[in-house]
Design brief:
With 322 residues, the protein is an alpha+beta fold. 33% of the residues lie in helices and 25% in strands. It is globular.
Length: 322
């Protein structure tokens, strides 16, 4: 017997994530009833993932469930917001209980890791499309934004860059052995840097998460802040696996223009630079200074020979080919 969307919601989606006292009414009614804490602003972000665009159509189901929530958590990390509630709108081709169970299990695991409750959403039939909205809290006046960078600030990134873009190349080429597993893992299971974002409150002057590539996303910070940046190409943090797989030049290009890293790029005034080592140790994530904010608009790359060249436009754009 065919199951309705309500049966599927009850069986697979109701109760995902943590129980939270600020959820007065969650899944099962026309709307959720939620109680934000006093003195905090709500940080709200929404991302849509489309099969064949945001993830390979043959990606593992559990990886899709993880990534659907992870990319939204990454947005909250960039705002220094503490995650709280999420909604899930899932369009799927058929009432496939096994697929939905694998998706929900991975989604639930990441939600519980970050203290998030699923409080509503929708389920319907159609091509595979996943839309997640996430809400978090940030004390008034403490949010990180894109418009706070000033000349003299240092440009810093977390983790290694370019792995996910190279992981996509591996996956599409069928190169899925143990020697490239760390690259494909970064593609399918990004790690949202929530604790890093919280630690940067009061220290970072601006921040963004790297979803479309460093050059593109840092460009948004520079535009919002009305300034420019000079990046040391040789300082870009590339993993040993990326360099071994693609070579140093291609690995750095992936670090600059590849997408799906979901690391944080942020700017730090000189006086807070000594704090970075302690923060990196506390959150278990390497932090690398890659350049400086300058007054002249635009992003420029300083090469190993000392020459300075404008950064080529890069990064993923949905409508860039029209």
């Amino acid at each position: 017997m065919a199951r309705s969307e309500f049966d599927l919601i009850r069986q697979y989606l109701t109760g995902l994530g943590c129980r939270r006292e600020d959820v007065q009414l969650g899944v099962g009614d026309d709307a959720a009833l939620l109680q934000p804490p006093a003195g905090h602003l709500l940080a709200v972000s929404t991302d849509t993932l489309v099969a064949g665009v945001h993830f390979p159509e043959d990606a593992p189901v559990a990886a899709i469930g993880h990534k659907a929530l992870a990319v939204n958590l990454s947005d909250l990390a960039a705002m220094a917001a503490e995650p709280a509630w999420t909604t899930l709108c899932l369009t799927m081709p058929s009432a496939d209980g096994d697929w939905l169970q694998a998706f929900a299990t991975a989604f639930d695991a990441l939600a519980r890791e970050h203290g998030v409750a699923l409080v509503g959403g929708d389920l319907c039939r159609g091509p595979l499309v996943i839309t997640v909205q996430i809400t978090g809290f940030v004390p008034a006046g403490r949010a990180l934004r894109r418009d706070g960078a000033t000349p003299g600030d240092h440009v810093v990134v977390s983790g290694c860059l370019g792995d996910a873009a190279l992981g996509l190349r591996c996956w599409q080429a069928g190169e899925r052995g143990s020697d490239t597993s760390s690259l494909t893992r970064r593609l399918h299971r990004p790690s949202p840097r929530i604790q890093l974002g919280l630690a940067l409150r009061g220290r970072a002057s601006a921040a963004i998460d790297l979803s479309d590539g460093l050059a593109s996303d840092l460009g948004h910070v520079l535009t919002a802040s009305g300034c420019g940046a000079e990046i040391q190409v040789q300082d870009l943090p590339c993993s040993e696996t990326a360099v071994r797989y693609a070579g140093a030049v291609a690995a750095r290009q992936a670090a600059l223009a590849g997408g799906d890293d979901y690391e944080l790029c942020f700017t730090v005034p000189e006086r807070f630079l000594p704090d970075l080592a302690g923060i990196a140790g506390a959150v278990g994530t390497p932090l690398t200074v890659i350049g400086r904010i300058v007054a002249e608009p635009g992003l420029r790359l300083r090469r190993e020979d000392g020459s300075l060249v404008p950064a080529a436009p890069g990064g993923y754009q949905h409508f860039g080919e029209e």
